[in-house]
Design brief:
This protein is α/β, with parallel strands linked by helices and about 450 residues long. The chain has helices spanning about 15-25, 40-55, 110, 170-180, 195-205, 220-225, 230-235, 240-250, 255-270, 290-300, 310-315, 320-335, 350-365, 375-380, 395-400, 420-430; strands at about 5-10, 30-35, 60-65, 80, 85-90, 100-105, 120, 125-135, 140-145, 145-150, 155, 185-190, 215-220, 240, 270-275, 305-310, 365-370, 390-395, 410, 440-445, 455-460.
Length: about 450
């Protein structure tokens, strides 16, 4: 059974019901709705399709609503190509003139921090510019790497973050829309810089009566890396967005930062998700590169919970083939490598959970976990037990949130009492055929909310 989960971005290449259905059959555990593009009507239709597939297949599929955030993107300009050594002009405007090599940036704060010699990166670093002269109405730059200038693509300054509010007015409207229509399991909060940014979204969700919706903080700025401990503490998990992170820090530092953030998430029992250019070559090619395969293998060794495909499934030519390849590489990696282990915290329940995970490995027992809010499951999963992990919860939203965690197969059992719930869960898994005669199982949970203090060993009869 594959442990590392796959999340796919829905876009023009994957929006049809048939493609979404095939993606779930191939092993996709969750879908990302990118609110930087498309309309509310399109997002609602996409979410409805995912929920219909859930019902048809009798499984849970996580929906991550990715907020645009205070991103800096190019304004409207006809696509044009720039060559190394050419001069282009950054202009503070909503619209640019391609024939004059104008690159429009409609964000005032971007120009306030620009200095001579700064390196500007466009479209996840595909195009590099060097700032040569700052004039009254434009910034003259030299092209360092050739590439296409396309409207709406992200732009950033290497080593610099802009001080922008964590939620835009568009984000607030998108959040209210998602909550009102019940289509969200996680919000992905873009360009987080500090823990308080997460708290602002949390307070808004509480005001909207959506306190069971999770928050994934996207780590994509230098400020976020500097304050990653407080961000992990405040959030329900993180997305390591390597595209913008490479712009902010420099490409050579991304692998080191990724390893450290995954380790911190593991220690805290929070899911970590790797994103951006996982199988970028498969946007155009039906086969990945060797470097991409190695990158995935390293992520498995680090113990990431999930891998998020973006352009590969949103606009790529081979969305289903891409997932097939990713699943194939993940399975091979998991057969070869056991994720790095992490230490237990000083928390008594955390130590109890480590003991349960170790016992399951030692006696070869399958784990049956009951959790009301997901706490017990997170405590045990952080130790990456090698046995099957089945998790039951009374809440569909919690079941979907747990669905993107490493190794978890989630179910809904409508019972609040932990002992009764575990008994029902055991019988349910026997009926499904997940448990057979002679299987050893460990049933575990918490007698009180937030606790992990119950474990019993049984042999299935």
């Amino acid at each position: 059974m594959r442990r590392t989960k796959i999340i796919a971005t829905i876009g023009p290449s994957s929006r049809s019901y048939d493609i979404l259905f095939r993606l779930v059959l191939e092993g996709v555990s969750g879908f990302r709705l990118n609110f930087a593009h498309g309309t509310h009507e399109e997002k609602l239709e996409e979410a409805k399709a995912v929920r219909a597939i859930e019902r048809e297949l009798g499984t849970y599929v996580t929906i991550v609503c990715d907020l645009s955030g205070p991103s800096v993107r190019l304004g409207k300009v006809p696509e044009f190509y720039v060559h190394e050594g050419e001069q282009v002009h950054l202009v503070y405007s909503d619209v640019g003139k391609a024939e004059e090599k104008e690159v429009p940036v409609p964000v005032r704060q971007f120009f306030e921090v620009l200095e001579d010699g700064d390196i500007v990166l466009i479209d996840d670093g595909r195009v590099w510019l060097r700032v040569d002269k700052i004039r009254r109405d434009r910034v003259v730059c030299t092209v360092l790497t050739s590439g296409a200038i396309r409207p709406g693509k992200g732009i950033g300054i290497k080593g610099k973050d802009l001080e922008l509010p964590p939620l835009t007015s568009k984000d607030v409207e998108d959040i209210k829309f998602c909550v009102a229509n019940g289509i969200v399991d996680y919000f992905a909060l873009s360009f987080v810089k500090r823990g308080d940014d997460v708290k602002i979204l949390r307070d808004l969700l509480n005001d909207l009566g959506a306190d069971d919706v999770g928050i994934l903080a996207k780590i994509e700025t230098k400020s976020a890396v500097d304050r990653v401990d407080e961000i992990v503490q405040q959030s329900d998990g993180v997305i390591i967005a390597r595209g913008d992170l490479g712009i902010s820090l420099g490409l050579e530092k991304v692998p080191i930062v990724q390893h450290e953030i995954v380790r911190k998430c593991r220690y805290s029992g929070k899911p970590s998700i790797i994103a951006t250019q996982i199988l970028e070559s498969m946007v155009e090619s039906p086969v990945p590169t060797r470097a991409e395969v190695v990158d995935i293998m390293v992520s498995v060794q680090e113990g990431v919970d999930a891998i998020l495909l973006t352009n590969e499934t949103a606009i790529g030519k081979y969305p289903v083939t891409c997932v097939t390849w990713l699943k194939r590489v993940l399975l091979e990696a998991e057969q070869r490598y056991q994720p790095e282990q992490v230490d237990a915290t000083d928390d008594l329940y955390d130590k109890f959970a480590r003991g349960v995970a170790s016992l399951a490995d030692f006696i070869g027992a399958k784990l049956l976990i009951f959790t009301r809010r997901g706490t017990t499951a997170r405590r045990i999963v952080k130790y990456r037990p090698r046995t099957a992990i089945y998790v039951a919860t009374p809440s569909e939203v919690i079941a979907r949130r747990l669905n993107v965690m490493w190794g978890v197969k989630s179910f809904v059992i409508e019972e609040r009492d932990v002992s009764k719930a575990l008994d029902k869960f055991l019988e349910h898994l026997k009926e499904r055929g997940d448990l057979t005669y002679g299987d050893i199982v460990i049933l575990t949970g918490g007698m009180r909310g937030g606790a992990t203090d119950l474990a019993r060993v049984e042999i299935v009869r």
